[in-house]
Amino acid sequence: MKTTRLLLVSALSLGLFAASCSSDDNEGETIVPIQGKYNLRQTGTINADGQEVLIDALANQAGCSLDYLDLRLSNAAVYGDYSGSNCSLVETTGTYVRSHNDLTLTIGGVTTTSDIMNLTNKELKIKDKTTGVITVFSR
């Protein structure tokens, strides 16, 4: 009987603990880690009707590997650009800071701040706060 009572109390305690750890404090922030290497896929904007209009990223040169953004655990950011007839890789380094659903990138001396529109294990979608340009990356 004591064992049953102990198991019941343990189960209730675990349930209460799990319920108290809600995501209300995240204010819509995703909890997926942002660190990782992302391939540039699409860019676009939101049209007058409020619809996203995305096209394949023009920065990606045909026949080359996809350009990428590598966000490292150390808050270092590396942008990889494949270009030229031999698809040579040029990497530009910088830093990034994530604050809730904002991502601030400083790469090559240029700083941009974007809203994180979507962050999953497979996709990072950001919207530049100044220009409104949407950029979609995939892992």
From TrEMBL:
Transmembrane segments: none annotated. Keywords: Signal. Residues 67-126 form the Lipocalin-like domain. InterPro entries: Lipocalin-like (IPR024311). It comes from the Bacteria. This is Lipocalin-like domain-containing protein. Pfam families: Lipocalin_4. The keyword Membrane does not apply. Residues 1-18 form the signal peptide.
